[in-house]
Amino acid sequence: MAFSEKNLKGLIAATFTPMTSCGAINLPVIQQYVDYLVQKQNVTNIFVNGTTGEGLSLSIQERKSLTEEWVKHARGKMDNVIVHVGCPSIMDSKDLAAHAASCGADAISAVCPSFVKPSSLDALVLYLQEVASAAPSLPFYYYHIPKLTGITYQINDLLGKVKQNIPSFRGVKFSDVNLMEFSLCVHAYKEYDFLYGVDEQLLGALAFGAHGAVGSTYNYLGKITGDLVKAFEDGNIQNARNIQFCIQEFLIYVFDMGWGLPEFKDIMSLFSGIPLGPSRLPLVSSIRSDHHDAIKDRIKKMDSV
Ligand SMILES: CC(=O)N[C@H](C=O)[C@@H](O)[C@H](O)[C@H](O)CO
Ligand SMILES: CC(=O)C(=O)O
């Protein structure tokens, strides 16, 4: 069975889902979006239909159409398309996993259902095994985001159980601030890829050996974050710190305004010029047109770092 041997590394943009003003998915925007990431942000990996892409607010048919479109336009231009297939129903996740494989995606990833949570760590492993088995040829990444799912099993405990049970298991998208837990995993499980997901402290995760990073800010801060990674790799830690601090300042501004995902989507539209449209209910953005200049100024300021 064909099983991709390439590892995931570098920056991976967690894409927003383009929508029309009426709230339908807007597929024709995707080609422009892919070109923007490659040409303007130097980002050649995407994670689609995840948290940032409002994957759990989309219908299964919408998720399939989006996957097809992202894969189609990324082909020949990008290195990897990772499709998030987590759903409240395991049947839907298996359906999406098989679909991702049939369209030529490079990898899949899933959160565990969290309205009805796994009753034990073993139950979580069984769930992941079942989903991964629907696309055995694709590398599988567990998506750990305890702040949103409330599923808090230690990842190093989980990894001890997946090896024998999930042959396609390839790593973790680790979206949590606990860097010690992250470090323990990187150290003990050298065979897996660890992709960090808290953009505001990526430098800490790089120091602990992160192989790559998946995040929403890499849509518009991909280039500057690429400079951060390069500075780190070159041993220029002071420069890497300066860049990370700038990114933190921007995010502190966003959080202090009380903003989150729907506002991040507006920020991306504003900055890139790509019409991503609104988020889907129950998300509503509170950015108004009189915020636009301040946001643009703050992002431009980072270019001078
Ligand atoms: C909760 C959430 O969406 N996390 C994203 C990825 O996992 C991050 O990319 C954040 O958007 C980013 O770190 C800003 O907080
Ligand atoms: C941010 C992220 O990784 C996601 O959108 O799933």
Automatic annotation (TrEMBL):
Q: Which InterPro entries match?
A: Aldolase_TIM, DapA-like
Query: What Enzyme Commission number(s) does the record list for this chain?
Result: 4.1.3.3
Keyword presence, Transmembrane:
no
Annotated active site residues, numbered on this chain, are 143 (proton donor/acceptor), 173 (schiff-base intermediate with substrate)
- Top-rank taxon: Eukaryota
* Pathway in which this enzyme or protein is active: Amino-sugar metabolism; N-acetylneuraminate degradation
Describe the task this protein carries out. Catalyzes the cleavage of N-acetylneuraminic acid (sialic acid) to form pyruvate and N-acetylmannosamine via a Schiff base intermediate. It prevents sialic acids from being recycled and returning to the cell surface. Involved in the N-glycolylneuraminic acid (Neu5Gc) degradation pathway.
Name used for this protein in its record:
N-acetylneuraminate lyase
Species whose genome carries this gene? Hymenochirus boettgeri
